[in-house]
């Protein structure tokens, strides 16, 4: 773990504090905190972190901050998966994707339902590249 000695700080912090980088996170800008986390995480942990942050980047713009509305899902699909899905701007395609993802029929897509989409797309990509 990275250590930083804070011996040159004015009192009361001058008494040789040794802090780890994670303990300094609240003092750092959020973008730098995210970068420092990525530096120390495994590839799978980085992928998980990106899945979570991508979901929350779009969720809650309308209503519940823990779910995606149809409009939020459409924005996510276009911005994050546009090249892969191609028809993410097609209203009927978005409607079908939304209906398929909304397994509990509450008219929103929660995190579990969103991860289902990403998992299915990941499996399809793997199958595509394995067949090449």
From TrEMBL:
Recite the UniProt keywords alphabetically: Calcium, Metal-binding, Repeat
Q: Enumerate the Pfam families for this protein.
A: S_100
In terms of superkingdom, the source organism counts as Eukaryota
User: InterPro entries, from UniProt?
Assistant: EF-hand-dom_pair (IPR011992), EF_Hand_1_Ca_BS (IPR018247), EF_hand_dom (IPR002048), S-100_dom (IPR034325), S100/CaBP7/8-like_CS (IPR001751), S100_Ca-bd_sub (IPR013787)
Boundaries of every EF-hand domain copy: 89-124
Is Nucleotidyltransferase set as a keyword in this record? no
Q: Where is the signal peptide?
A: none
| Single GO MF annotation | calcium-dependent protein binding
Any one GO CC term of this protein is: cytoplasm
The UniProt entry, under Gene3D superfamilies, shows: EF-hand
Q: Does the keyword rRNA-binding apply?
A: no
PANTHER family named in the record: PROTEIN S100 (PTHR11639:SF118), S100 CALCIUM-BINDING PROTEIN (PTHR11639)
This chain belongs to the protein called Protein S100
Q: Which species does this protein come from?
A: Hucho hucho (huchen)
């Amino acid at each position: 773990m990275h250590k930083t000695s804070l011996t040159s700080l004015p009192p009361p912090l001058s008494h040789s504090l040794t802090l780890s980088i994670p303990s300094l996170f609240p003092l750092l800008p959020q973008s730098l905190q995210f970068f420092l986390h990525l530096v120390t995480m495994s590839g799978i942990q980085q992928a998980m972190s990106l899945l979570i942050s991508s979901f929350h980047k779009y969720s809650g713009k309308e209503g519940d901050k823990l779910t995606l509305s149809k409009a939020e899902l459409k924005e996510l699909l276009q911005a994050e998966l546009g090249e892969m899905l191609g028809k993410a701007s097609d209203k009927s395609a978005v409607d079908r994707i939304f209906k398929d993802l909304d397994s509990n029929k509450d008219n929103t897509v929660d995190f579990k339902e969103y991860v289902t989409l990403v998992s299915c797309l990941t499996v399809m990509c793997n199958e595509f590249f394995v067949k090449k």
